[in-house]
Design brief:
Elements: E1 11-16, H1 20-29, E2 36-41, H2 45-57, E3 64-68, E4 70-72, E5 75-78, E6 81-84, H3 85-91, E7 103-107, H4 115-129, E8 135-140, E9 144-146, E10 158-160, E11 167-172, E12 178-179
Length: about 190
C-alpha cells in the first residue's frame, strides 16, 4: 500500500497587511496556489518575528521568499515600523534552518536596494537567512507602482521602470561568501 506524500509550501510570501496597497496586491497574488505560505503582518515587526519562530518550530522549509512592503533605501516597512539591517542582525539571526536549500529572497518595496544602504540591507538579509546553502537577495533601486491583485494576468505585482540597472542582486554561496558584481568592486 502506498502512502500519500504530504508536501508543504516552498514559497514564503510576507506582506504588510496594514497597507491598503499591499493588502490589495495580496488579494489575488497567489490565490489558489497551494505552494505558497502567506504571512500578513499588521501588528509590526514583533508579529513577523513570532511568525518566523512558529515556522522554525514547525520545521518549515522554503526556497523562495517575497517581502511585499513599502520600502526606502535599506529599509522595508511594516506600517510605521522599519525593518533595516540592524534589526535583521539583532532579531532575526537563527532562522537559517527555514532555508536549507539555495533560496531566493526578493524585496519588492520601492528603492529598498538603492545605494549603500540598499546593499547593506541585502547583505544583512543574506548573512541572516542564507546560512545553509546560500542563494540570492535582490530588490529594486527605483520607485515602484503596485497593481491591485484583481487585475488579470499582472495583478498583485509591482512595476518598476528604468531598465536592468535599477535591479540589484547579491549571490551568497554556502558558508556566507558573497559574489559581488565587478561593477561594485572598487577598480573592478
Amino acid at each position: 500500500m502506498e502512502e500519500d506524500v504530504v508536501t508543504s509550501p516552498t514559497k514564503l510570501y510576507i506582506y504588510d497587511k496594514s497597507s491598503d496597497i499591499d493588502r490589495s496586491q495580496a488579494a489575488g497574488r497567489f490565490s489558489g496556489d497551494g505552494n505558497v505560505f502567506t504571512i500578513g503582518v499588521d501588528k509590526g515587526i514583533q508579529q513577523l518575528l513570532d511568525a518566523f519562530k512558529q515556522l522554525a518550530k514547525s520545521r518549515a522549509k522554503f526556497d523562495r521568499v517575497l517581502f511585499q512592503t513599502h520600502g526606502s533605501p535599506g529599509t522595508i516597512w511594516f506600517g510605521s515600523e522599519a525593518l533595516n539591517k540592524s534589526i535583521l542582525r539583532d532579531k532575526f539571526v537563527g532562522f537559517g534552518s527555514l532555508f536549507p536549500h539555495p533560496t531566493r529572497i526578493y524585496f519588492d518595496g520601492c528603492n529598498v536596494a538603492s545605494g549603500g544602504p540598499g546593499t547593506d540591507f541585502l547583505l544583512s538579509a543574506g548573512y541572516v537567512f542564507l546560512t545553509s546553502r546560500g542563494g540570492d537577495t535582490f530588490g529594486w533601486t527605483t520607485i515602484g507602482h503596485g497593481l491591485w491583485g484583481h487585475i488579470p494576468l499582472i495583478g498583485g505585482h509591482t512595476l518598476h521602470f528604468g531598465g536592468s540597472n535599477t535591479f540589484k542582486r547579491l549571490r551568497f554561496w554556502a558558508g556566507g561568501e558573497v559574489d559581488f558584481p565587478d561593477s561594485w568592486i572598487p577598480g573592478g
